[in-house]
């Protein structure tokens, strides 16, 4: 079904490694596939209680009365907590706008008002239902664009009193304004032969991991151990420490196997609620979410965005200027979304040569579920809108969309829209490869078409640490702060250590996902695990390698600098017969100075920007080791019903050096299928009172295995300096960027007009094909020419 | 709370007479209870081990399907696929392989969802439903069984024991199609079943069309003409759209459903006519012809 192996063999870039790297099976695979793996929900501790939350159930209201007396009186109830029972602490990613429990006002339907720990789940639920809450309804802020109007009620009237990162530009409901400006947009538009304006709207969506989250907390004295299905154990620990006012050495977060996250399990969520319950109840407590809770309560769902674009272009296809305005739905609290405005502004400009650019983005408070980092936050929506607009621009000057992108996309040594000049990059090769794999230009039935889109995504540099040791029997152990959320990135660390020490990946076991055991890592977020923790593991293994070389040099009467570690043996360079087994060296060390390495390494510096001005700068316009991609989708559209079906996707990526091909291909396949869902079927709907209408898997439609098309993958491999180990960039998020956009352009090619709202459901495709206004939330300004 | 396992129909009927509710696959009852639709009844009688409810019989009188027969069995039954194709089409679209193995035809009928995938097929194939109680057995035409969403004419002490479908006339074919947004774990946005009998020369001698997910129950389209196939198809489209009483919900607007059910009804008629003409179209038509989610 998948053409990945073939595409690997056809890898053709000049910088490709001499031989393909080994394809190895991940160590956690058998556990997960056979069902022997253990997840947080599988834990049972003696005396453990069940936790349940009382949710607001109303999007915006003042709490007039909150009475837990009846709930506390129910037999089997051990603890009932509200904000009055925990420290008065505001927390947040870049704006400290939230408390653990609702504090006087509820601001979205999934806000936690109270929590109960009881002998079993049914008793806990009875107690939750017995809590008396009376509300005075407040006006519901349901439309992000309207929320910017001066007379709109404020979601946070006290916003000015909140602590926040100083870089953020805030004003009322605008939680974060950012702009990226270069050149003179008005002059650039005036100089254009054609100016195309477009309006698009992307609905919000969800990460929808297969495992609904679970948290277990147990106190021993003044220390708490929390097992949690989190992608970011150290961030979760920090949240517990902040809100419960504990030092970090008294909070230990352990993550058993994690059942996926896709960003939805980033951030600090409910660990502190459960820890507080366990402390109050003097018993271990488990919180186990239902699927409905997984949809409604976390502060990590993909944000809706409204877009306006204006692009000026010469008849020869040269872009002269672009203006973009974005309104992003922040939801009721800022979670980690403070950086979204600048990141979205970058994506709205795109990987194009644009001499005159201005992108402005507003992150706007509403009474919706908070937005947060879901796999490549802001990028798939922005790419979908921008690349749909780009096809409109190409069409306006009569240039083939693929050729239009070849002419305008950035390339090695070219300055991008934020004033960053790129080193050697592979975007143009990605365009060529995706088009070739898709059979671009081939004759197709009249209800089929191919759409192309290009995308980009930064790599994120972060501190990270690991220990590596060899025990006396020669077996290795990697103790790492890195978190495996299914990408295989942590599994790949074994290969890096093995290569450093001339051993096999199977020689190493991993100790991971335990904040008490390992040094810091940012977690499974920002595609950063291999990028940063790979550097740490290489550094740690390097220390062990130095020890081995010194030991070998003594025995072989050679200089340590001449010792080579390979194939489980240390030998003198050029003299393979002068050798000693690494296992033997490990045994010797086991009776003397132990083989222990620790590593971190300095993260690469951010590149410099020239000629641009960034307001609300949160370091999202200067990208370390940027990744580039081109996706091409062949789509069939049933014109009578608007049903679109993706027949084939080709995905070409520059993510630097590929270290573990199986894992890399898996990331692309999964992200493409996720992108198809975002394109066609996944979207949150709200009613007029800001209640989600489809918080479940029946009406929030993920793609199924039966819907997945063949996916052809190509990696343009450039060993990038100032990147991760061996020139690797990130990968897990980048393939999620351009799929929806490619599908959109294919659909537009069949029906002759873009669908202006995401997801492009059958009904919206049908309405667009009729020319109906229902395809857009507000009447789009049609693409047109001006002098 | 009681849970009785019945091994014969008589045991089941006795339990029903004492106030128990029947459970077979549980794919509606248990899932509904978990989602707060309705709590599980206090008294349940399991009917999934009653062998006589799990038989498929084909004879001169037609087809008799025990109420406990799974969608998977129906989907794979060669004679059903050949002669009562619309039912096989519908059964093959239910949920996932797991759902189709535990879900039964009797449960599907008595759950009375207007979006059910077997209902339109049973209507156009002129099914009658066998309802048994300790007081005796009665036969009810399928069109009279459903009284509203989730509501039927089945009395509390009655068990649906079988569905009877007459043998179709010669030169007949049937098909069920649905509009779907994905190819598994899906519920019909709209659906249409059609049964067509061709006259010599290929014109339509008889046609029935029924619709799912556009009214409180499965509804049959009235006033269909006979004669030229293309004209019958167009009439089916127009009449289906006209007679549909769809709602707007998170799956689709009423406007879209009204339009789409016409498209699907026309396609159902044309697919049924192709089968009536002897053409073999694999079950389900949705996959074979790519209707709905085009393949």
Task: Walk me through this protein's architecture.
The complex is a heterodimer of chains A (787) and B (295). Chain A has 787 residues and is of the alpha+beta class. In chain A, helix 7 (233-244) packs across helix 8 (271-281), helix 10 (340-349) packs parallel to helix 11 (379-396) and helix 14 packs parallel to helix 15. Among the domains of chain A are: 40-138 and 213-288, Alpha-Beta Complex (Aldehyde Oxidoreductase, domain 3); 462-599, Aldehyde oxidase/xanthine dehydrogenase, molybdopterin binding domain (Aldehyde Oxidoreductase, domain 4). Chain B has 295 residues and is an alpha+beta fold. Chain B folds into two domains: 49-165, 2-Layer Sandwich (Uridine Diphospho-n-acetylenolpyruvylglucosamine Reductase, domain 3), CATH 3.30.465.10; 172-287, CO dehydrogenase flavoprotein, C-terminal domain (Enolase-like, domain 1, 2-Layer Sandwich). Chain B contains eleven helices and 14 strands. Chain B has helices at residues 9-17, 29-34, 71-76, 78-83, 85-93, 97-102, 105-111, 119-124, 229-243, 254-276, 285-289; strands spanning 2-5, 21-23, 43-46, 56-59, 62-66, 128-133, 136-141, 146-148, 151-152, 159-165, 172-179, 190-198, 204-212, 219-220. In chain B, the strands form four sheets. Chain B has a five-stranded antiparallel β-sheet. A four-stranded antiparallel β-sheet of chain B has the order 11-12-13-14. Chain B has a three-stranded parallel β-sheet with strand order 1-3-2, covered by helices on one side. Chain B starts with a strand and ends in a 6-residue tail after the last helix. Classes of the chains: A alpha+beta (787), B alpha+beta (295). At the A-B interface, strand 26 and helix 19 of A face helix 10 of B.
